[in-house]
Design brief:
By secondary structure, this protein is an alpha/beta fold. Helix content is 40%, strand content 14%. Catalyzes the reduction of ribonucleotides to deoxyribonucleotides. May function to provide a pool of deoxyribonucleotide precursors for DNA repair during oxygen limitation and/or for immediate growth after restoration of oxygen.
Length: 977
């Protein structure tokens, strides 16, 4: 340890002369004002460096693409604390270490990364007079280092990418641009977005200033309209995302609901989704990242409609609503408000766009209305502020503040430590604006003038579960609200203190009254919030004190920052902090996919499950039994010894006990009054959800005071990879029943009592059969499927490759094995579940009109067998349809002749659990061994599909993170934070 420490000290000393540090901001002798900040020790001890308190180890990082085994990234001998997971190590090494791989310039230790960033913050803080003396600057550096080292919080990704390097010091993840009604401004918008995407960030813009296609130009011609100009921006983003070194482009396009082109805007992406379906059915590769998807427009942006209270009241009243010209502001058209609102919900039902932003609510909480209105947001909708501004983010790991006094108190939130952590982080975030670079001059000027910050948190879902609170419960919402209130109150109190040291933000004077008014609204919301339990009462009490002190101080000093808090997706940084859940999200599932140090992976029960059981008062033996049950089944329903009233504590975003859509909306509503910005979150709905249900979610979002809301209906987009679902076995009619529908369909022997072996039912000498010739990716073959006279499949023979070749021999052996198993009663559904979606070459287009694309020969074979030998109901559960059935779905919303009526009643979890699939085959009830992420693992256990694309870097299926997605394999995100 001493040798490693010596080496690290020398590295840090050498890094003082690193390139990229802005010398102009670093005078030789720091000047400390007499009232500079006094920084207290919270986590560190005098005379002991944080690096000396942890155990370090060397690891090899080798990341592969699971689809073809190719190496995506490799760096050996990196140094990390032994407490950091392999996942966090891989992501930090591949994403955040700077320098060319394989050269001496490449960073190889977490110490170097933290030092590179933290020393820049300390040096800049000293240079700009933030600290009272040298000792305070040193303590600030050590405290920040300790928190980063122990995964207490993380800055957003651009900080790790850029700070302390020779690159521009871009620290912001979120940008809002402005576009006016001139060609110069529109073309400038294209260029500004390109610079932002190149830097690894995302941007949002409101196009409502651009005159509509129903208005005239000054030359007398007709204007193109904003939707037309969206095409050029979309093409630009699609090009830049493939060339960026850090992440895909992320963008938001907003249009006001009173814009004359609003109906065209609403239908834009839904119309393109129809085009995608037609092209897919014609055999084109229209999957996310597919070779032909680039021919479709408007796929690189999230779209949102900015609605007003006037419009929402017109929807309630069923009256008309005026669309106004952009140049004269006169009403040039009137629409039925209720119909337009339903069109918005219909489009969201079809393709998840557009989302909703509630304009009057947003601007009612605006601290700078004298400067201008808030018209847009960043791509994930958590940052909302003035045009041509940016926001840098940081997020706390909430689970690190859940007190655990030797296992005797799992339900106390450490408010005192949390407050100190927020103070330090807000100080650092404000310092970063002093040295930050910005993509445009206007953004740099406005950001320095208003100094918007976005502190937030991750691991809320894990915190609630570990403390014994259900996510969708009054107690869970009260605790989330109290923590959010305390975080923002502390951030603004520290902002007022900073204003007393280095002055308020430049735009404060003209907005002083408005800023103070919003602070009082936050404090009033805190006073009115519902208290439920001792844990949230303590946090609310601390928040009340912080609001009172901070507002009194702000009235005297002003505030240093126009905004302070948001709830971001925390995708990559959430993995860096080893968080189980991202942002404000609930847990994805109770069983997770985990990488191992020596390579390979395994599925494990979340560590929050046993911690929650401790908090609920269960003993060690019961906890062990429940954890074992969860490992096997993936849920807690009927777990031995677990009381049914505690099931809700373990509800997740997916699975048998999935949280209902309004549970997500209510959680957002509980936190929103205590945030400067908004919340990045998508409300997920099942495939059976109706347009009316989506409209109700959007309506309730307005009534509950949210600032923005987005929805996603399962399987509404072609770009979502489908997973084969397990169909539940038909329930027997009574205790005397000895057969199931499956055994009758396949002609299999009836399963007897435990210990009785299955018997083989041989096919008769003469039996019906079907021979199918096929082509998959250019490889030709033949399949002969023989059936029992009662129409149950009994044998499969495959001819592929030349006689005597290895391939032909393997396929013959495979055919015999499948045939014997079918005759012993293994249901065809089992093989369809196992082999569909299996990926290997040859793959690609087929000559089968029902299966235009296949991921492998086995994928094609078992899809064809399913179409030929399974009922339409069984295939529907597996997600396999004929071309005619897919067409019928597009036209009627149902694969059957008559549209099915969705059951919108509340789910009976007990009944659902009783009808859950079971099997004597342990493989059938266990997670698929081919899982490569927690999302894939959960899909394999529940038989449902998740709304997540495949990672474009490593091929692993991503998981939701706010309104974006994050890859657990390599840390890539689809968002901007």
């Amino acid at each position: 340890m001493s040798e490693t420490r010596q080496h690290s000290t020398e590295d840090r000393a050498a890094s003082n002369g690193r390139p990229g540090t802005r010398s102009a901001a670093e005078p030789a002798l720091p000047v400390y004002p007499p009232d500079g900040l006094v920084v207290e020790r919270v986590f560190t001890s005098p005379g002991v460096h944080p690096y000396d308190e942890v155990s370090w180890e060397r690891r090899d990082v080798v990341m592969t693409n699971w689809r073809d085994g190719s190496v995506v990234f490799e760096q050996r001998g990196v140094e990390f604390p032994s407490s950091w997971s392999v996942n966090a190590t891989n992501i930090v090494t591949s994403k955040y270490f700077r320098g060319a791989v394989g050269t001496d310039a490449r960073e190889w230790s977490l110490r170097q990364l933290i030092d590179r960033v933290v020393r820049t913050y300390r040096d800049t803080g000293q240079a700009h007079g933030y600290f009272r003396g040298e000792r305070d600057a040193e303590v600030f550096e050590l405290e920040l280092t300790w928190m980063l080292l122990h995964q207490v919080f993380s800055f957003n990704s651009p900080v790790w990418f850029n700070v302390g390097t020779a690159s521009p010091q871009q620290v912001s993840a979120c940008f809002i641009l402005a576009v006016d009604d001139t060609m110069e401004s529109i073309l400038n918008w294209y260029g500004e977005e390109g610079h932002i995407f190149k830097g690894g960030s995302g941007s949002g813009v409101n196009l409502s200033r651009i005159r509509s296609s129903k208005e005239l130009l000054s030359s007398g011609g007709t204007a193109s309209g904003p939707v037309s100009f969206m095409r050029g921006a979309d093409a630009s983003a699609g090009t830049i995302k493939s060339g960026g070194a850090t992440r895909r482009a992320a963008k938001m396009v907003v249009l006001d609901v009173d814009h004359p082109d609003i109906e065209e805007f609403v239908a834009t992406k839904a119309r393109e989704e129809d085009k995608i379906r037609v092209l897919r059915d014609a055999g084109f590769d229209m999957d996310l990242g597919g070779t032909d998807i680039a021919s479709v427009q408007y796929q690189n942006a999230n779209n949102s409609v900015r609605v007003s209270d006037e419009f929402m009241r017109a929807v309630e009243d069923g009256t008309g609503f005026g669309l106004r010209a952009r140049t004269t502001h006169e009403v040039i058209d009137t629409v039925d408000a209720r119909k337009l609102f339903r069109d918005i919900a219909q489009a969201a039902w079809e393709c998840a766009d557009p989302g909703i932003q509630y304009d009057d609510t947003i601007n009612d909480w605006h601290t700078n209305p004298e400067t201008g209105r808030i018209t847009a947001s960043n791509p994930c909708s958590e940052y909302m502020s003035l045009d041509d501004t940016s926001c840098n983010l940081a997020s706390l790991n909430l689970l690190t503040f859940l007190a655990d006094d030797n296992g005797t108190d799992n339900t106390r939130f450490d408010t005192a430590t949390f407050v100190k952590a927020v103070e330090l982080i807000i100080t650092a975030m404000d310092i970063s604006i002093c040295f930050a670079d910005f993509p445009t001059e206007a953004i740099g000027t406005n950001t320095r003038a208003y100094r918007q910050l976005g502190i937030g948190y991750a691991n809320l879902g894990a915190l609630l579960m570990a403390s014994g609170h259900a996510y969708d419960s009054d107690g869970g919402r009260a605790l989330a609200a109290s923590i959010t209130s305390l975080m923002t109150a502390t951030a603004y109190r520290r902002s007022a203190e900073l204003a007393g040291v280095v002055g308020p933000y430049d735009g404060y004077a003209r907005n002083a009254d408005a800023h103070a008014r919003v602070m009082r609204k936050h404090a009033a919301a805190n006073d009115d919030a519902r208290r439920m339990h001792a844990i949230d009462r303590e946090v609310f009490a601390a928040a009340t004190t912080e609001w009172a002190e901070g507002n009194a101080l702000g009235e005297r000093n002003g505030w240093r920052n126009a905004q302070a808090s948001v709830l971001a997706p925390t995708g990559t940084i959430g993995l860096m902090m080893d968080c189980d859940t991202t942002g404000v999200e609930p847990d994805l599932a109770l069983v997770k996919f985990k990488k191992l140090v020596g390579g390979g992976s395994m599925e494990i029960v979340n560590q929050t499950v046993p911690r929650a059981l401790h908090a609920l008062g269960y003993g060690e033996e019961k906890i062990e039994a429940i954890v074992e049950y969860v490992t096997e089944h993936g849920h807690v329903v009927d777990a031995p010894g677990l009381r049914p009233e505690h099931y809700e504590v373990f509800d997740c975003a997916m699975g048998i006990r999935a949280i209902r859509p309004m549970g997500h909306v209510r959680m957002m509503a509980a936190c929103q009054p205590f945030l400067s910005g908004a919340i990045s979150k998508t409300v997920n709905l099942p495939e059976s959800a109706t347009v009316d249900e989506i409209a109700e979610v959007y309506q309730q979002g307005w009534k509950l005071g949210l600032k923005a809301l987005a929805v996603y209906r399962d399987n509404c987009k072609v770009g979502q990879p489908l997973s084969a679902g397990r169909s539940a076995k038909a329930q027997s009619d009574g205790p005397e029943s000895t057969t199931t529908n499956e055994s009758a369909a396949t002609g299999s022997a009836v399963a007897g009592p435990h210990g009785v072996l299955p018997t083989r039912k041989r096919l008769p000498k003469s039996r019906p059969s079907r021979t199918t010739s096929f082509t998959v990716g250019g490889a030709e073959g033949y399949m002969t499927a023989g059936s029992y006279p009662d129409d149950g499949l009994g044998e499969v023979f495959l001819k592929l490759g030349k006689q005597g070749s290895t391939l032909a021999g393997v396929m013959d052996a495979f055919s015999i094995a499948i045939s014997v198993a079918l005759q012993h009663g293994v249901p065809l559904e089992t093989y369809v579940q196992k082999f569909t979606n299996m990926r290997f070459d040859p793959a690609g287009m087929t000559d089968d009109p029902d299966i235009r694309m296949a991921q492998s020969i086995l994928d094609y074979i078992f899809r064809r067998l399913a179409l030929d030998h399974l009922s339409v109901e069984s295939r529907a559960a597996l997600g396999i349809f004929t071309a005619e059935e897919r067409t019928r779905q597009v036209e009627t919303g149902s694969y059957t002749a008559e549209p099915a009526t969705p059951d919108t009643e509340a789910v009976d979890f007990d009944t659902l659990a009783q009808s859950a699939p079971t099997s004597d085959d342990p493989e059938a009830d266990s997670p698929r061994r081919g899982a490569h992420s927690s999302t894939e693992l959960l899909e394999s256990m529940t038989g449902s599909s998740a709304d997540a694309p495949l990672c474009m870097t490593c091929g692993t299926k991503m998981r939701p993170a706010g309104s974006c997605f994050v890859c657990e394999g390599c840390g890539s995100t689809s968002g901007c934070s």
